[in-house]
Amino acid sequence: MSKTRIFFNEVATRDGFQIEPEFIPTGTKVALVDALSGCGYAKIEVTSFTSPKAIPMLRDAEEVMGRIRRAPGVEYTVLVPNVRGAERALESKADELNLVMSTSETHNLANLRMPRDKSFASLSEVVRVVAGRTPINVSLSCAFGCPMEGDVPQHEVLAWGQRFADLGVRGLTICDTTGMAQPAQVARLCDEAQRRFPGLQLTLHFHNTRGMGLANVLAAVQSGIVRFDGSLGGLGGCPYAPGASGNIASEDAIHMLDAMGYDTGMDMDRLLRVARELPAIVGHEVPGQVAKAGPITQLHPVPAAVTELRAALSL
Amino acid sequence: MSKTRIFFNEVATRDGFQIEPEFIPTGTKVALVDALSGCGYAKIEVTSFTSPKAIPMLRDAEEVMGRIRRAPGVEYTVLVPNVRGAERALESKADELNLVMSTSETHNLANLRMPRDKSFASLSEVVRVVAGRTPINVSLSCAFGCPMEGDVPQHEVLAWGQRFADLGVRGLTICDTTGMAQPAQVARLCDEAQRRFPGLQLTLHFHNTRGMGLANVLAAVQSGIVRFDGSLGGLGGCPYAPGASGNIASEDAIHMLDAMGYDTGMDMDRLLRVARELPAIVGHEVPGQVAKAGPITQLHPVPAAVTELRAALSL
């Protein structure tokens, strides 16, 4: 039996960097994307074509996109908030445009400062403008719950997905934006989303805010999902939970799926080397665990005391 | 359909405290066990009747056992390394004795300084001495891999379990001592252990060293396992992986299973209050996530900017 292929999208340089307080130099961003390009990712979300005033960290989007080396087989995607951003993204030769809105009205108002209907209208306009020139993915935030509203009904999440499917987008990313998903809920939504959208690329985006990140990845792969977002080192905290983790660490999720026998296509040694450079890049520790503990395949030396004991006991 | 009942065993005051560098005062230990007794645990591993020289932290085992208030419905279990420890444990009126040996020869030599056969002979003697006066549980270390040897074959783990089952012990705890288990392996071993030992209480003990702790809990409950060890706050690091997490945080695992609809019997609010006292007790941060982020049921206030925006837009 051939192994199931899993496709990872690395979001550290966009979703992860976005909330870092200190500007990360353009050259460092380019070097990190280039290093990630050699690790086996299916996709890298490089940056965001948003207003430089809104997110100063990503004000160098054009320069980063212009300077990275494009590796064959890797898609370079970018976040795009509106038509202006889409035009900049097309000019930068992004392989995919990622649009985002929230399935929670309150979260959309808090995050994008407009009601969901207005977001949908604005993003529909982006889809029309792009008109088949570049594939479009739509990330639906708070699909497993809103930190302010609480439950977001599954049928509402699916209805928003349907509206974008009807516009002809290539994929949907179902996002657990603040780490509220639990595995039983993940299984239900993944089952139903795959039934409803058999022609779309479905990606799951989990946070580890309450420790359930990899349990939710497990529930999703068990349901048949093969595409995941991850953020190297678990970069990207959660503004609603100071001290808690944000995004799942790509390397931890990939390490688990590799160990389970999935074909992630990733070079784990190389990935861990890159992950171990992150604390120096961002100036603080990061939550990823495998970079600290080493993969399960990396054994520890037998202590001298054991060797002596074996000799003494003639074992 | 009635909810599946899950039984949690809290090991923070034994397994967690054991590796803390600063002695924790006896009164603090007693107060913590008493606080845990009110949280809904099925079992609490209070302390260890080992040599005070081997583990100075737990040199007050008798006093702690004598001073705790026994809550009805909670079993107070203790770790016992040998016949001398068993006699002390029986004297202290422990509800259960927990014996431990490793399924890996190298790990047993490193940790217990004797080969597995000698550990088995010594623990068999304990079972004979206790002779039905108190139930006995046996914890099998490294059941999902040894940090020095690597793979530990499933049939070997089951064979060690069988030898103890033949002696008439009440339960087996299958331990992922250094966080090497992955969910597919957990499902296989749990399936087979339940088939082989239908009459035994089977408990799973996971570490979160590589971020897979709750994914492994999920795989185990999916297989039908209903008993878990957990350590409040995730107390108890891993000597083989500095900086990495050790035991799964009880409150994170319980929070996930509660959210999924299992009946853990736990009072989550009370449990989180106790978990939030841990950093002051041990003098450092602990890995547990839910105590920092709050449970998924705890919503955040709607920001004033959203309320103003709603008013301005007549939403």
Detailed description of the structure:
Chains A, B: One of its GO terms (biological process) is L-leucine catabolic process. Chains A, B: Residues 6-272 form the Pyruvate carboxyltransferase domain. Chains A, B: One of its GO terms (molecular function) is hydroxymethylglutaryl-CoA lyase activity. The structure is a homodimer of 315-residue chains. Chain A is α/β, with parallel strands linked by helices and 315 residues long. Chain A has one domain: Aldolase class I (TIM Barrel, Alpha-Beta Barrel), CATH 3.20.20.70. Helix content of chain A is 42%, strand content 13%. The first copy, chain A, has helices at 12-16, 26-37, 61-67, 83-91, 105-112, 116-130, 154-167, 183-196, 213-223, 250-260, 268-275, 278-282, 290-293, 304-312, and strands at 7-10, 43-48, 75-79, 96-102, 136-141, 171-175, 201-205, 227-230. An eight-stranded parallel barrel of chain A has the order 1-2-3-4-5-6-7-8, surrounded by seven helices. In chain A, α4 runs parallel beside α6 and α8 (183-196) runs parallel beside α9. Chain A is globular and about 80 Å long. The first copy, chain A, starts with 6 loop residues before the first strand and ends with a helix. The model of chain A has no long low-confidence stretch (mean pLDDT 96). Chains A and B meet through α5, α8, α9, α10 and α13 of A and α5, α8, α9, α10 and α13 of B.
